[in-house]
Amino acid sequence: MNMYPHPGGPPRGPPGGPQQPSRLNELLEQIRAEFESESQRSVDYEGQIRQHIQEIEMIRGKVYALEQQHVQIKAKYEDEINRLQRELEARGGPSQSSQGHGPSHPPPPSIGHGPSNLFGGIMAGSANQGGPGLAPPPQEPQQPQGLPAHMPQGPPGLNTGAPGPPQHFGGYPSAPSVNGYGGVPQPTASPGGKRAGPPPRGPPGGPATPQQNSAAPYPGSPQVPRPTPPPNQHQNSLIAASQVPLSQSNCLADLELETLPDNLKKEGSDWFAVFNPRARRVLDVELIHNLPHQSVVCCVRFSLDGRYVATGCNRSAQIFDVESGAPVAHLQDGSLPEDGDLYIRSVCFSPNGAYLATGAEDKVIRVWDIQSRTIKNQFTGHEQDIYSLDFARNGRIIASGSGDRTVRLWDLESNAQVLHLSIEDGVTTVAISPDNRFVAAGSLDKSVRVWDANTGQLVVRLEGENGHKDSVYSVAFAPSGDRLVSGSLDKTIKMWELTTPPRMIPGSAPSGKCIRTFEGHKDFVLSVALTPHGDWVLSGSKDRGVQFWDPHTGVAQLMLQGHKNSVISVAPSPTGGIFATGSGDMRARIWR
């Protein structure tokens, strides 16, 4: 038998050889099918995860909207209860205090405690604390239950209205009341004319953490029932007002609302305005939106186009639509621990409205991309709380002021600090001039400084005989850039004229002088601003009042009472006709 294949026959291999490639192909096909199946399954999982994330975001948005709605409804009911309570008291019924019940809502918060205390006692707080250069401001006593509102009460040592020798507290003699409003006690002077105060404690002070504390109603406010005046009393009031010297006619808080004729007052549900009898009335005012918050509103600021207003409070900044009053954005750094207080002291929009800068107690400046709700830039370097920020009109530079005695300029494009300016005391407020050339700062040392923003050279220091007599808490440039206004704990506002030499004249000395002082507030001036065309000076005070002043004469046009605690921040809309206020009563308000 021939064991060899025919030369032309097919080759013979081992058994099963031709079947191996097909088996391998089958296995590869199975693996590919499983891979495609798993890929499709992962795509399905990703789609489900995205859907869950969208559902979570929608739930979060609904919860936030419900929370805001609840806060607004609560505030509405509280206002209605207060209104009914005032009506009841006006008709001779039992007052809330006489029934021994506490207020129907939590006591309004106040600013002021802590060893580094720049804003100490603005609303209430420890009377024996103060930063270097700042004698401790007086404490605003908490109103106990069961006592009439006009009886000032406080810790042992405060004057309770009982007869006897003057009481002292924290080194201050109790001051007499003015028109029922407790006067601000004046500290005793030390030799050399400087106010006596405690020795410096560690680093320079800054606004202390806001805390809850009840504030006594301001006389004439909606919280205090107003007696019906006898016939013709308003005529006597107007005659008396017309006989007051013009320099003293700005004390609009001394006017009795009930005695004024209708053309010199305007009342809302929980606010009122009085107009100066000695000045021609050319303004009107009305409340547009009430924006309740969960904590003290430390700052308010409009976007350059006037469409949005931002507020800073505990742990977050919020943005609202000016026309509707609806919340637009809630900006909060989720990487921070959730316990403890962290107040946003200052907010400001970039000129194009795309970003919001916030300065906080944790010494960090955050620049938020509003659209994505993410942090675009984060600047660190300050050693104390940041109290004030301002965006340059070029959209590139941010100025910051801190209790660490420094003003710093930051560049968004290079993401770096470009200027570091040191002074002798805590910086409370900063502002950049409209032409980006200068940066101004107010300080605990009672002075206002202006520097060249490019070189850091001190241009002028505004102080002296005609300067402020106490710490400066707010500065703002006029639209023209050649003037600025400042507000102080000395209860006054000052307008300064800046004379800066042309750059081509070497060695020429710049100068600045106080050309006008605005007097009329009953307590610390905490915030000042100028309307877009420089037509009015706007101010907010610890006396809970907002005043509009004629910048050319220094005469007050109107006083607005609409908050139940200190007005910490005022801001005019850059487009005109609207302004906002922020207060220790946990509310921001938008007015026209």
Automatic annotation (TrEMBL):
Annotated WD repeat ranges: 344-378, 379-420, 427-461, 465-500, 518-550, 560-592
PROSITE patterns named among the record's database cross-references: WD_REPEATS_1, WD_REPEATS_2, WD_REPEATS_REGION
Record-linked Pfam families: Tup_N, WD40
Ranges where the record places region Disordered: 1-22, 84-236
Source superkingdom: Eukaryota
Positions with biased composition (Pro residues): 7-18, 197-207, 219-232
Alphabetically ordered keywords of this record: Repeat, Repressor, Transcription, Transcription regulation, WD repeat
The keyword Translocase belongs to this UniProt entry's keyword annotation: no
Coiled coil: none
Biased composition (Low complexity): 92-103
Residue span(s) of domain Transcriptional repressor Tup1 N-terminal: 23-91
Protein name listed in UniProt: Transcriptional repressor rco-1
Originating species: Lophiotrema nucula
